[in-house]
Amino acid sequence: MANSKRDLFLKRRLRVRNKLRKMNAGRLRLSVHRSNKNISVQLIDDVAGKTLAAASTLEKALGVVGKNNIEAATKVGTAIAERAKKAGVEEVYFDRGGFLFHGKVKALADAAREGGLKF
Fold first, then answer.
1. What is the chain's pLDDT, residue by residue, as a tens digit (119 residues)?
2. Domain containing 38: what range?
3. Residue 21 domain-assigned?
4. What is residue 57's three-state secondary structure?
5. CATH number, domain containing residue 41
6. Model's pTM, two decimal places?
């Protein structure tokens, strides 16, 4: 029986999330969501259940509204790294969800690393 794309996505997402839960050593989670039109990222404290920082291509301040390309993902990664530094966060776990680590997701992660986040 063949799995649909959605089923494979959900299996990947659960596999990634479960591994992060096992490794969780008090670090925050950098969660990425990619749609067909936008990409967004959140810095989440799972213990307190709060979002400390977020960045998205929907923000007019980043100047990439409505763009979903590698350049836009790089700007979002840089922005979340700056906001994490302001919140006093240096080390995080990268939660790619069910998205494959290439293209826009990889560009966002590389930009966040260059901005000073360690994961």
1. 578 999 999 999 999 988 888 887 778 999 999 999 999 999 999 888 999 999 999 999 888 877 779 999 999 999 999 999 999 999 999 999 999 999 999 999 999 999 999 98
2. 5-114
3. yes
4. coil
5. 3.30.420.100
6. 0.87
